[in-house]
Structures are given as structure tokens and as C-alpha cells.
């Protein structure tokens, strides 16, 4: 694949000329997909542990084991479902949209069941109920999230417009986060205590909103890229060809590593920040401000992403953003003794930097799906996306214990009202130097290892269009 100049990319390679052109309707439809996903995902991420410990009365250690097992199982479920979808024939409504329609209802029902509390049962019953319903919800989440994530690559094959889909996906996630962060605590807590009826009411309300969003995604989005079914003679050895192609897919392997590092770092910082503001700054109220700022920085970055990507490219914009984030966090490390407000101000600049990577990462995935087709002549959107999701789930599983281990390693003692200076310094290092180094490493990975520059991506799009035309 040689390097080429900018090219005009067609909206569709399907022979159906009546397909509506890509536009705002698709962007809004794709935004609603993650809006629906995150109504439950964020509710679970933010409040399920306190529901299990305070309503069911199970131990935090049990919840930790449950979350670890579930993440590893989810990783397997993702790949299994991705392969299953790639073996299905497309319908008149597309290859991926029908699964969002079919599976969103059982997904939401399972989500509501997680928050059902039957009073007076034994501890063993609550543990078993939590295990079964949480694993069921995670499995069904894969059946919706995998087709949803894979769908971006067949809505449009324009590299820049795929970036807008990634941007709108992030907008959907952030809007859900704002609604749950603002409204969730008002529903689920009464007199500063977890309320079982409040949790169930929140699950029902967010479940209804989730279904509405999934239906909007189904109605507004259009799958345009339809690959002709391969002859049975070509389907033999398909799994072998797929695995060889995945291993040769350098863009995929690179973005897997970068995303894995980013996710583990994000989870570490999230866990450590609680101790940073509680013990180092003695200001837990600032945690809410940090959460709001992170959301605001994403919305500030969003209108800048498309013009910057159009001019410079996804790789280039994401790399510069990670460099800015890395520099700011390292600067925080070498400037100890900052006031809380000044610290938050510098963190905001770092968050603005990594918002670019966090927003366009889904567009990277659609590009590596194209690259897989270029290498193998196999269009396996579900499989490639599920491999990416698999890596993220494994990262979540691994990262789940990193925060606790790291805090323990710096000598944190919950029985002490005031932590030692060594512990406070260690917490500050974990919150600043560690993410700074990780972000710089991701910057170097993008610059030196990720091969799909703007020019090479445009050439890839041209080469794929030619190969598909020759096959038709």
C-alpha cells in the first residue's frame, strides 16, 4: 500500500443507489447508541458496588471477585459474539442494526433485575443472585455493544466522517454520564443512605430511557457498506485466515496496546484521586469539580476534532493530545505544594489533551477493520471490534486491582486519621508522575508504531474501493 494524496471518498459501495446519503441523522443515531449503552453501564460502574455492600450486605471482597470474574467472562463473550455476527447474513436493515433491536430489550430487563431486592433472604442467596444477574447482564451487554461498535465501519467509509461518528459516540456517553451523575444520587439515596426502592426506581427509569435511545439508534442509523457473500470455496480456512490477518494487523496491535495502557491509567487515576483529595488536599468536594471539568473538557474538544482531523489526521491529533496530557501531569509532579485550585487548573489542561485520544479512539477501530479487510479480503467488522473490546475488558479486569495495590504499596493505613508524609508523597506521585509517563508512552506508540497516517489512510480507502470494485 503506497502513500497517496487526499481522495474523495464515496458514501457507499453498495449497489443500492437509493440509500440515503450519510449525514446528521446518522451521527445523531450513532450518538443515541452509546447514550443507551451508558445509562446502565455508568449506573452500574458508579453505584452497583454500594448497592451490593449496603443493600445486599455482601462483602467488598466478594464484589471485587465478582467484578474480576465478570470482566474476564465478558472478554470471552465479546469475541464469541463478534464471530457469531460475522457468520450471519445481512438483512434488509443491515448486518448489525437488527441485533441492537433484538437484544436491547432482554439487556434492559436483565439490568433492572440486578437491582431487585427480596428482603429477608440469606447472605448466600444474595451472593448467588448478584453473581447470576450481573454475569447475565454483562453477557447481554456484549450482544448489543459489539454490533453497535462494529456498525460505525459500515455507516460510512469516509475516514473523516468516521471521526465524527466517534465524536458523537463520545457525546452520547458524556450526556448519559451527566444525567446519571446529577440525577442518580437524588433517586438512590435517602437521608444519605442507599435505598433499595430508590435503586430499583433508578434502574427502571434509566432502563426506559435506554430502550428509547436504542430505538432511536436503530431508526436513525443506516448501514451502507455491504460486502457480497463469499463463495463457500473461499470460506474454508476462514478462521485461520482471520487469525493470521489479526496477527499481521500492525495498526490493530498498536491501538490495542495504546488503549489498554490508557484504560488502565484512567482507572488508576480514578481510584487514586479519591485518596489524593481526601488525604493530600483534605478537600473531597473538589472530586465533584474534577468530574465536571473532565466532562467540560470533552465538550470543548469536540468542535475542534473534525477540522483538526481533516487537516492533520487522526493519528496526528491524538498523538499531540497525549503529549500535552503527559507534559501537564509531569509538570504537576515536579511542582508539589500546589493549591487545590491550581492543581485542578493544570489537571484540566491535561484532561483537555487526552480528551482528543479518548474521543477519536473509536474511529481508530473502524480504520483497523478496513486494514484487516485489506490484508485478508475478509470483511469481519464484528470479529475485529470484539478483539478490541476483548483487550479493553482484560484491561479492566487487570486494572481493577491496581488501584488498591498501588495505594497499599505507598503505605496507606485506613486506621490512621492522618497519613504519613511518605504515604502522602506516594499518593501524589501515583496521581501525577505515573499518568504522565503512561501518556508520554502512548504518544510515542502513536508516533513511532501506529502506521496509519492521514496519507496512508486515504490510500487505504482508495485501494479498498478498487479491490471491492474488482470483486463485484
TrEMBL record:
Domain Major facilitator superfamily (MFS) profile: 251-472
Subcellular locations according to the entry: Cell membrane
Gene3D superfamilies found in the cross-reference section: MFS general substrate transporter like domains
Keyword Membrane: yes
Pfam families: MFS_2 (PF13347)
Keywords noted in UniProt: Membrane, Transmembrane, Transmembrane helix, Transport
Gene Ontology annotations of biological process type: carbohydrate transport; sodium ion transport
Membrane topology: Multi-pass membrane protein
GO molecular function, one term: symporter activity
One GO cellular component, as annotated: plasma membrane
CDD domains: MFS_MelB_like (cd17332)
PANTHER family linked: MAJOR FACILITATOR SUPERFAMILY (MFS) PROFILE DOMAIN-CONTAINING PROTEIN (PTHR11328:SF24), MAJOR FACILITATOR SUPERFAMILY DOMAIN-CONTAINING PROTEIN (PTHR11328)
Record protein name field: MFS transporter
Species assigned in the record: Metabacillus sediminilitoris
Source species taxonomy: Bacteria, Bacillati, Bacillota, Bacilli, Bacillales
Amino acid at each position: 500500500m503506497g502513500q497517496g494524496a487526499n481522495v474523495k471518498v464515496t458514501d457507499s459501495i453498495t449497489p443500492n443507489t437509493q440509500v440515503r446519503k450519510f449525514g446528521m441523522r446518522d451521527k445523531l443515531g450513532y450518538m443515541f447508541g452509546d447514550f443507551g449503552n451508558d445509562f446502565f453501564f455508568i449506573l452500574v460502574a458508579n453505584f452497583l458496588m454500594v448497592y451490593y455492600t449496603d443493600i445486599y450486605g455482601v462483602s467488598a471482597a466478594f464484589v471485587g471477585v465478582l467484578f474480576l470474574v465478570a470482566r474476564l467472562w465478558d472478554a470471552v463473550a465479546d469475541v464469541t459474539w463478534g464471530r457469531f455476527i460475522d457468520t450471519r447474513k445481512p438483512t434488509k436493515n443491515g448486518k448489525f442494526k437488527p441485533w441492537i433491536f433484538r437484544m436491547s430489550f432482554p439487556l434492559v430487563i436483565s439490568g433492572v433485575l440486578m437491582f431487585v431486592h427480596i428482603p429477608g433472604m440469606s447472605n448466600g442467596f444474595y451472593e448467588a443472585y448478584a453473581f447470576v444477574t450481573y454475569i447475565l447482564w454483562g453477557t447481554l451487554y456484549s450482544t448489543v455493544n459489539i454490533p453497535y461498535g462494529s456498525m460505525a465501519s459500515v455507516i460510512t467509509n469516509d475516514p473523516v466522517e468516521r471521526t465524527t461518528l466517534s465524536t458523537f459516540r463520545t457525546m452520547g456517553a458524556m450526556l448519559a454520564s451527566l444525567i446519571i451523575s446529577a440525577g442518580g444520587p437524588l433517586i438512590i439515596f435517602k437521608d444519605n443512605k442507599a435505598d433499595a426502592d430508590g435503586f430499583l426506581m433508578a434502574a427502571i427509569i434509566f432502563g426506559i430511557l435506554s430502550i428509547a435511545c436504542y430505538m432511536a439508534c436503530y431508526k436513525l442509523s443506516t448501514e451502507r457498506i455491504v460486502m457480497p457473500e463469499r463463495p463457500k470455496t473461499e470460506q474454508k480456512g476462514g478462521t485461520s485466515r482471520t487469525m493470521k490477518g489479526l496477527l499481521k494487523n500492525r495498526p490493530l496491535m498498536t491501538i490495542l496496546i495504546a488503549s489498554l495502557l490508557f484504560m488502565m491509567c484512567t482507572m488508576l487515576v480514578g481510584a487514586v484521586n479519591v485518596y489524593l483529595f481526601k488525604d493530600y488536599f483534605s478537600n473531597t468536594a473538589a472530586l465533584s469539580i474534577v468530574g465536571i471539568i473532565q466532562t467540560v473538557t470533552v465538550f470543548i474538544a469536540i468542535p475542534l476534532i473534525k477540522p483538526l482531523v481533516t487537516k492533520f489526521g487522526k493519528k496526528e491529533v491524538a498523538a499531540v493530545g497525549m503529549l500535552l496530557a503527559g507534559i501537564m501531569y509531569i509538570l504537576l509532579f515536579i511542582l508539589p505544594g500546589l493549591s487545590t485550585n491550581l492543581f485542578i487548573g493544570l489537571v484540566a489542561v491535561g484532561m483537555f489533551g487526552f480528551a482528543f485520544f479518548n474521543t477519536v479512539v473509536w474511529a481508530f477501530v473502524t480504520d483497523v477493520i478496513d486494514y484487516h479487510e485489506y490484508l485478508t479480503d475478509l470483511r469481519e467488522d464484528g470479529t475485529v471490534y470484539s478483539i478490541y473490546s476483548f483487550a479493553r475488558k482484560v484491561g479492566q479486569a487487570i486494572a481493577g486491582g491496581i488501584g488498591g495495590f498501588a495505594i497499599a504499596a505507598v503505605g496507606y493505613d485506613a486506621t490512621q486519621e492522618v497519613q504519613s508524609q511518605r504515604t502522602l508523597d506516594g499518593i501524589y506521585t501515583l496521581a501525577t508522575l505515573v499518568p504522565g509517563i503512561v501518556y508520554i508512552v502512548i504518544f510515542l506508540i502513536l508516533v513511532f508504531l501506529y502506521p496509519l497516517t492521514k496519507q496512508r489512510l486515504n490510500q487505504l480507502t482508495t485501494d479498498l474501493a478498487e479491490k471491492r470494485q474488482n470483486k463485484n
